[in-house]
Amino acid sequence: MTKVPKARLVLQDAMFVRDKLENEIGHIEWRLYWVLAVVLLRAVGHVLDKVDGHNDPVVKRVAGELHKSWRTGEENAIFRDFIERERNSILKEYSSEITEGPVPIMAHLQRHDGFDVIRHFLIEENLYRPMESGAFAGEDGRTLLDEAIAWWALQLGEIDRRTRAAAP
Questions:
Q1: pLDDT in tens, 64-81
Q2: 123 pLDDT band (50/70/90 cuts)?
Q3: Neighbouring residues of 102: CB distance < 8 A, sequence distance ≥ 6
Q4: Cα–Cα distance, 25 to 1 (Å, whole number)
Q5: What is the CA 138 to chain-centroid distance, rounded?
Q6: How far are the Cα atoms of 51, 63, 69, 72 from residue 80, in angstroms, in the given order?
Q7: CA–CA gap between residue 154 and residue 161 (Å, rounded)
Q8: Per-residue pLDDT tens for 1-45?
Q9: What separation, in Å, do the N-terminal and C-terminal C-alpha atoms of the chain show?
Q10: Which terminus of the chain has a lower count of CB atoms within 10 Å, N or C?
Q11: Got the DSSP string for the chain?
Q12: What whole-number distance in Å separates Cα of residue 86 and Cα of residue 79?
């Protein structure tokens, strides 16, 4: 049994919204699902602290200890450089690092006859939605959402493990 049920519920909702992004082709709908997914991912930590932590002091203590480590280390870059950064950008400026329109691609084809060919393409479908800047520039946003979801699942699992170990 989990000691962080509300945080897990928020994570479950983030997973649901993430799935919507896979096939959504409507511009406005995609943007709204993106905003919701990012905000939910950051809300996991707030709910963990304010709700699950409020209901269990051991959860609050363990989550607080872990939160300090989330601000450092390469293993926590997804939290620091994606979840927090993208959420802050959305909520404070209503801007995002995710691409919203067709993605221009340039292909440099090397030919054996000595004449190279450069081709320009646009990816117009919902095939590739890269981050335009930041620590994860070039990464598909949905892949980052998947990594963030997996990261939160590990963190919540660790909190459950530590709180069970601390129980009398």
A1: 999 999 999 999 999 999
A2: low
A3: 122, 123, 124
A4: 38
A5: 14
A6: 22, 16, 10, 8
A7: 10
A8: 999 999 999 999 999 999 999 989 888 999 999 999 999 999 999
A9: 16
A10: C
A11: --S-HHHHHHHHHHHHHHHHHHH---HHHHHHHHHHHHHHHHHHHHHIIIIIHHH-HHHHHHHHHHHHHHTSSGGGHIIIIIIIHHHHHHHHHS--SB--SPEEEEEEE--TTS--EEEEEEE-STT--BB-SSTTBTSBHHHHHHHHHHHHHHHHHHHHHHHHHH--
A12: 10
Q: Which tokens sit at 134? A: 């930041």
| CA–CA gap between residue 25 and residue 48 (Å, rounded) | 33
**148: how many CB neighbours lie within 10 A of its CB?**
24
CA angle 50, 94, 24 (to 5 degrees): 90
Entry field: residues in the chain: 168
Which amino acid, 59? V
Residue 122 has pLDDT above 70, yes or no: no
Q: At a CB cut-off of 8 Å and minimum separation 6, what does 127 contact?
A: none
> Token pair of 34, please?
């993106």
**Is residue 124 predicted with pLDDT exceeding 80?**
no
